Amino acid sequence: MNTVKTVRELRAAVARARSEGKQIGLVPTMGNLHSGHAALVTKAAQQVDFVVASIFVNPLQFGANEDLDTYPRTLAADQEKLLQAGCNLLFAPTVEEMYPHGMQGLTRVTAAALSNELCGSRRPGHFDGVTTVVSKLFNMVQPDLAIFGQKDYQQLAVIRAMVHDLNMPIQLIGEPTVRAEDGLALSSRNGYLSEEQRALAPALYRHLREMATAIQNGERDYLALSSQHAAQLEALGLRVDYLEVRHASTLLPADVSDRDLVILVAAFLGTTRLIDNVHLNLDNAL
Ligand code: PAF
């Protein structure tokens, strides 16, 4: 696996692969990779002949008081994991390479309206930062397919909307969330948790599952159900940012007649904000 740091080298390597008739897959990441990322690369390697991963901690998607400076940068370990998972090329640019003229006055891709909900309303500008950097990566690599994790459910929905609205000729694949044995969704931010917080964190998925079971069993008062479980999480010591039942594709608040639902949660343990979700289709068994 080669690592390149410039757009020129990236384009040259991808052009070589294309000239050999290879299909190209892209797995965009911010690094500090775990088995969830490895699963995305493995999936890509099953689908295409040439897998490009990117590692770029994108300043454009971090708010002023967020963890841009402390976000873990672990390139050597990441390279090893990517190699094991079947990655062919790693693109690991600097901020200057990605934004040579700075970020002020930059042309941006405005994310679809569904980005204003949930995480978007708590992290203003976050999804515009994501759609801008992802469309830059798409233009640089011009992949046949791109793979993202379903843990970032709203991010995937926003990127799907971008690809559809801007007619990008890229197949998107959402891969299921990889979890620790106790149910906690793997996330680069789990590393911020103290031992005590880590022990509490699986409660998020536990409560999502309990809510899904209640809905499956006929509960339709989604507001009451959400506030009941949010209160239980708060009692355990988590600070709930949101816990909501939404329509799975529009991400609007779920109506009692909706069949395709997603329950989404964002909660703080100390200063660490974790997100998770459970998708349930009432026409299929849980
Ligand atoms: O999910 C992430 O790691 C990032 O938001 C992404 C998609 C790589 C864009 O920076």
TrEMBL record:
InterPro entries: Pantoate_ligase (IPR003721), Pantoate_ligase_C (IPR042176), Rossmann-like_a/b/a_fold (IPR014729). (R)-pantoate binds at Q61, Q155. The active site is at H37. Its EC number is 6.3.2.1. The keyword Translocase does not apply. The keyword Cytoplasm applies. Pathway: Cofactor biosynthesis; (R)-pantothenate biosynthesis; (R)-pantothenate from (R)-pantoate and beta-alanine: step 1/1. Keywords: ATP-binding, Cytoplasm, Ligase, Nucleotide-binding, Pantothenate biosynthesis. Catalyzes the condensation of pantoate with beta-alanine in an ATP-dependent reaction via a pantoyl-adenylate intermediate. HAMAP family: PanC. This is Pantothenate synthetase. The gene is panC.
